[in-house]
Amino acid sequence: MDYLHILSAVAILGLLGAVLGLLLAFASRVFAVKTDERLESILEALPGANCGGCGFAGCSAYASAILDGTAGPSSCCVGGGETAAKLAKIMGVELGQNLRLTALVKCSGGTRALKKYQYQGLDNCLAAMKTGGGPNECQYGCLGLGSCVKVCQFGALFINEYGVAQVNHEKCTGCLRCVKACPKGIIAAVPYYADCNVICSSKERGGILRKICEIGCLGCHICEKTCKFDAIHVVDNLATIDYDKCTGCGDCAEKCPRHLIVDAGLNEKYQPENA
């Protein structure tokens, strides 16, 4: 056996491996994707809920957006002001006003609204709506089957005693998944600290609405005439609030004949004890 040839082959392979290793090391340094050292700190500051409430796919995507300047530190609805302050400190920027949003179900009807028929089908709002538009005479009314409740990972929604979806605002993080889940489009994002909100979505004329719902907005304009700040107007037979103008004085809520204007916490008396 020619050991010289074997040793030569081993030496050549070893030398080739060393050369390739050096080339790979050089390439890894030259073509390395530089990671901002702040990325890890940002991810540690974020709650890791990956809820999408910030408008990005998850916490990692939001962290990257903060670093490249396409997102600010105040968009994490789960972490709130505390997380925003941490992120602002990491980025070395001044924290602006953090406007917290919350979900609001703009309906009060439920069992107080007229039914077209008794729905017996899938426990899903979209399925019910595809059955003749749903069992409610009011086409804008909550179907009460809890599709929004099912998508809320924070347990912030429940079906109240009137069969209407309602938000526990202490638990709501403002991720707004429920807004997308509602096929009726009656769940809206409103400022968490808003003192006045109209909990109705009907655009029917008052004469028609009286026949199908005992609590819906009649478009009577009383609230509009009462407001001293031009913050509420009846548009398409429905009272609509301009939150930039509203001072929360409560005059409109006091005058509303159907008591449909409430603060963001809704009516506490309607919330079950375990909500």
What features would you describe in this structure?
The chain is 32% helix and 10% strand. It has helices spanning 3-30, 38-45, 59-67, 80-91, 125-129, 147-151, 177-181, 206-212, 222-226, 251-255; strands at residues 101-105, 157-159, 165-167, 187-191, 197-198, 232-235, 238-241, 261-262. 33% of the residues are buried.
Helix content: 25-40%
Mean pLDDT equals 86
Rounded to the nearest angstrom, the radius of gyration is: 28 Å
Fraction in beta strands:
5-15%
Q: What is the strand arrangement across the widest sheet? A: 1-4
Number of helices: 10
> What gap, in angstroms, lies between the N and C termini?
85 Å
Structural class: alpha+beta
Beta-strand segment tally: 8
Major beta-sheet overview: 2 strands, antiparallel
Low-confidence residue ranges:
266-275
Shape label: elongated
SSE pattern, N- to C-terminal: HHHHEHHEEHEEHHEEHE
What is the topological layout?
Layout: H1 3-30, H2 38-45, H3 59-67, H4 80-91, E1 101-105, H5 125-129, H6 147-151, E2 157-159, E3 165-167, H7 177-181, E4 187-191, E5 197-198, H8 206-212, H9 222-226, E6 232-235, E7 238-241, H10 251-255, E8 261-262
Antiparallel strand pairs: 1-4, 2-3, 5-8, 6-7
Give keywords.
single chain, 275 residues, alpha+beta, two-stranded antiparallel ribbon, two-stranded antiparallel sheet, 10 helices, 10% strand, disordered C terminus
